[in-house]
Design brief:
By secondary structure, the chain is an alpha/beta fold. Helices cover 31% and strands 25% of the residues. The structure holds NADP nicotinamide-adenine-dinucleotide phosphate.
């Protein structure tokens, strides 16, 4: 009995209690992850409430990971962020880190994993496994089965990304700006999203990089190549923030190598893991961000062929960025571990 307890139940740390960290606590419970002891860490100690349950948040330090088996990081990215500062302490203490941020995703010895796509890469970890960016996860859950069956040549994606993708403070910013506009008041200078998001769309997520693409757009390309183990697929992205609270949508154009048609593509998607096809134009059935919110599936709608290019198709993909795009994907990786 003691042996069984030791092998199955894990001591888990969740780092960060923002939009993703809170979702992580929810998903661990929902999926009945076998948690022995749970430690919740952030920059400041306090109590938080998630779905009526109170969690004791401890102030993080380099000793916080003693005895921890799995550390799920959902802290801010960058130099002062949780993963850069504390992930090596967690690994030294014997924990396996699953990191939600972008700091380590492209490092050579860090597997970048979507369990529906490349679970075999988990085995290669050396203490840290990275969760891909939210828009990459939902795009590849939808595209991988098509790639496996017909071979992808070209992908052009336009994203419609929710405020929650930029964290809890961005959700508050969308809400307070929307209230101001509706009450006819001046909108305060944006602090999180750079420009006004209420009643607007912003075609810039992240920073501008080479050739005028943004960091979010380049992430979609590079992370997809790493996960699919090929850089031969030509991927171009335009990433746009929209005034939606939660769940990202993507309009995706694909060209495939092998002979295909809409019904073949639909069948491949219908039988793939993690996907729900909602696509009945006559019955006006298609997926929406507000309907995907709170769910774990990646929803695919509007499957149609391009009117001009042979072997080219369009799909519409929607998923909850805080769940499959972050917390659920990380907990699925922990389940594999
Ligand atoms: N939002 C999404 O859809 C999404 C999707 C995929 C990946 N991600 C990634 O997931 C991570 C978390 O995102 P989020 O949206 O949840 O952000 P968030 O709402 O801004 O929350 C950030 C949390 O990180 C904690 N934190 C920051 N620096 C820390 C440090 N040095 N040590 C310990 N804790 C620290 C903060 O602690 P305090 O509360 O004490 O300040 C806060 O609880 C980011 O790396 C983000 O890029 C987000």
């Amino acid at each position: 009995m003691e042996m069984l307890k030791k092998s199955k139940y894990k001591n888990v740390a969740v780092v960060g209690v923002g939009a993703v960290g809170k979702m992580m606590l929810r998903v661990l419970k929902e999926r009945k992850f076998p948690v022995d002891q749970l430690k919740v860490l952030a920059r400041t100690a306090r109590k938080i409430r998630v779905d009526g349950k109170v969690f004791n948040v401890e102030k993080i330090n380099h000793e916080s990971f003693r005895g921890i088996d799995i550390a799920l990081f959902a802290g801010t990215e960058g130099e002062k962020g949780a993963s850069v500062v504390y992930s090596s302490s967690a690994i030294r203490a014997g924990a396996v880190v699953v990191d939600n941020g972008g700091d380590f995703r492209m490092k050579k010895d860090v597997p970048l994993v979507i369990p529906e796509v490349n679970p075999e890469d988990i085995k290669k970890h050396r203490g840290l496994i990275a969760n891909p960016n939210c828009s990459t996860i939902q795009m590849l859950v939808a595209l991988y089965p098509i790639h496996k069956a017909f071979g992808l040549k070209r992908v052009i994606v336009s994203t419609y990304q929710a405020a929650s993708g930029a964290g809890q403070a961005a959700i508050e910013e969308l809400r307070s700006q929307s209230r101001a506009v509706l009450q006819g008041k001046d909108v305060l200078a944006p602090k999180v999203m750079g420009k006004q998001i209420a009643f607007n769309v912003i075609p810039k997520i992240g920073e501008f990089l080479e050739d005028a693409y943004t960091s979010e757009e380049i992430k979609l390309v590079k992370e997809s190549h790493k996960i699919l183990h090929t850089s031969k697929i030509k991927i171009s992205a335009t990433c746009v923030r929209v005034p939606v609270v939660n769940s990202h949508a993507e309009a995706i154009y694909i060209e495939v190598k092998k002979k295909s048609d809409v019904s073949k593509i639909r069948n491949v998607l219908k039988s793939a893991k993690g996907i729900k096809v909602v696509d009945q134009p006559k019955a006006k059935r298609f997926s929406l961000p507000i309907e995907a919110s709170g769910k774990d599936a990646v929803y695919v709608s509007r499957i149609r062929k391009d009117a001009y290019v042979k072997g080219a198709f369009w799909i519409w993909v929607v998923s909850d960025n805080l769940r499959k795009g972050a917390a659920t994907n990380a907990v699925q990786i922990a389940e594999y571990l």
